[in-house]
Amino acid sequence: MTEPAPIPGLRGRFTIPSLAFGGILMAVMQTVVVPLLPDLPRLTGSSAGTVSWTVTATLLAGAVLTPVLGRAGDMYGKKRVLISALALMTVGSVMCAVSSDITVIITARALQGAAAAVVPLSISILRDELPPERRGSAVAMMSSTVGIGAALGLPLAALVIQYADWHVMFWLTSALGALGIAAIAWAVRESPVREPGRFDVVGTLGLAAGLVCLLLGVSQGGQWGWTSGPVLVLFLAAVVVLALWSWQQLRTKAPLVDLRLAVRPRVGLPHLTALLTGFAFYANTLVTAQLVQAPKATGYGLELSIVATGLCLLPGGVTMLLFSPLSARISEARGPRVTLALGAAVMACGYAVRIADSRDLWMIIVGAAVVSTGTTLAYSALPTLILRSVPAEQTASANGVNVLMRTIGQATSSAAVAAILVHHTSDVGGARVATLHGYLLAFTMAGAIALVACAAALVIPRDAAAAKVPRQARRRVPVAAPERTGKGA
To answer: Closest by alpha carbon to 21, among 112, 89, 114, 118?
Structure first.
C-alpha cells in the first residue's frame, strides 16, 4: 500500500483542524437542546413527554444513520458523505431556528442525528490521507472531539438561552454548521479508497427497524414501564428483526455490515468494549449534571444553575483535549489495546473518587475530570484498533458500527441510571428527589462496567499480527476502478 502524498500548502495544514471542528460541532449539536428541555413544553405548547422526543429522535436517527452513512462513505466517497451529514445537521438547525412547532423541531432533531457519522467518516479520511507517523495523534484528537464538544455545548447553550431568545442558539449553530461545511470542502480532499458494489437497501431497512425497536424500548422503558406491553413488544420485535437482518447480511454479496469480519476477536472485542465504555462515559455527564443541581435541602445538593453546571463539566472537556496526544503516544509505545485497558481503568478510578466524595464541588469536578481522562484514552484507542484490523475500504463502515455500539451503551446507561435514581428518592419540600445513596449506586454501577471494559480490552489479541493485515490484504482502489483490486483481511 503506497503512502498518501501530503496535501500541499495551506489546505494541508487545515485538514485535521477542519475535521476536528466538524466533530466538535456534532457533539455540540447533540447537547445544546438539554438546557431547553425544562422550558420547551411552555415554549412550544406541548407536553413534557412529547418534548423528550427532541432527544430521542436524535438518538434513534444517529444510531441508524451512523453505520449506513459509513457504508455509503466507503462506496461513494467519504468526503462527499461527510459534507452531506453536516448539511443535514445544519438544515435541521435552521428548521429549529425558524419554528416553534414541536413537530418541526422533532423532525429537525432527527435530521441532526446524521451528524453522528461525522467522527467515523473523519477518522477514515485521516487513515487514507495521513502518513503513519501523523495518523495516531490525529485519530486521537478526532476521537476526543466528542467529549470536548459535549463539554462546550452545555454552557454555551445555557448562556445563549439565559441572555437571548432560544431561537438565537439555533441560528448560531446553523452558522457554525455552514462554516464547518465550507472548511471541510476547502481543506479536505476526497479519498481514493473505495469499495465498489451495490448498496444494500434491504439490509439498511432491516437494521433501521431493529435499532429503532431496540433503542425506543431502552429510551422509553422508564416512562412506559419496563414490563409494559409496548416495551416488551419492542424488545421482542428487535430480537426477531435483528436476527433476520443478521441472516440476510450473511447471505448477501455486498452486506451493509460485514458480520464475518465484525465477529473476529480483533474487531468484535473492540465493539464490545465500545459499548461498555459508552455506558461508563455517559453516566459521568448524566449523573454529575443532576447531582450538582439538586436542592441544598437534600443535604448534598449544591443547587447550581444550568450555566454553572456546564462550567463544572468544562474541565472534563479540557482534559480530553490535553490528554489526546498522550493517548496516541501510549498506543505507539505499547499498542492501542493497552491504551484502551488503561483508559477503562482510569474511568473506574474516577468513579472511585466520586464514591469517596460527592459533596464538595472541587472533588466532584476532579472526579468528573478523571473519568473524562479515562474516556479520552479509551475513545482514542478504539478507532486505532479498528483501523489496524479491517481492510482500508471498510474503515468508515467498521468505525460506524463501533460508534453505534457506543451509542447503544449510552442509551442503556441513561435508562439504567434513571431506573436507579427513580427507586432511590426522598421527599424534599414536597417533591421527590434522588438520594445521595442513589447517586452513589449509579457511580458504583458505572465503575463496575468500566472494570469489565478493562478486562475485555486485555483479552483483545495483540495487534502485532493485526498490523500486518493492511499491508498484506489491501491495496488502494482508485475512484474510477471498475472492480476491486484487493481483498480484505
So the answer is: 118
Helix (H) or strand (E) holding 125: helix 118-129
Residue 86 · residue 182 · CB < 8 Å:
no
Amino acid sitting at position 323 = F
Please list the rounded mean pLDDT of every run of 10 residues in the chain (489 residues): 60 88 90 82 86 87 92 92 96 95 94 93 90 84 82 81 87 95 93 82 94 90 88 96 96 90 92 95 85 88 84 83 85 91 97 92 92 92 91 87 91 88 84 88 96 96 53 40 40
Residues 6+ apart with CB under 8 A from 350: 284, 367, 368, 369, 370, 371, 372, 373, 374, 447
Tell me what pLDDT residue 423 has.
Answer: 86
Three-state secondary structure call for residue 262? helix
Q: How far apart are CA 19 and CA 141, in angstroms?
A: 10
**Residue matched to cell numbers 466538535:** 24
- CA-to-CA distance for 148 and 20, rounded, in angstroms? 10
C-alpha to C-alpha distance for 35 and 162, rounded to whole angstroms = 10
- Would you state the pLDDT for residue 6? 60
CB-side neighbour CA atoms (13 Å) of 290: 19
- CA nearest neighbour of 31 among 317, 271, 272: 317
pLDDT of residue 8: 60
At residue 373, the pLDDT reads 92
Please name the residues in contact with 75: beta carbons below 8 A apart, sequence gap of 6 or more: 194, 195, 196, 197, 199
Q: To which residue does cell 494541508 refer?
A: 12
Q: Report the predicted TM-score, pTM, of the whole model to 2 decimal places.
A: 0.85
Round to whole Å and give the CA distance between 316 and 321. 9
- The β-bridge partners of 434 are 425
Identify the CA nearest to 94 among candidates 36, 25, 178, 158: 178
Q: Which residues pair with 427 in a beta bridge?
A: 432
Other C-beta atoms lying within 10 Å of the C-beta of residue 162: 11
Which of 361, 331, 357 is CA-nearest to residue 463?
331
- CA distances, 473 to each of 1, 389, 392, 402, 413 (Å): 9, 10, 9, 21, 38
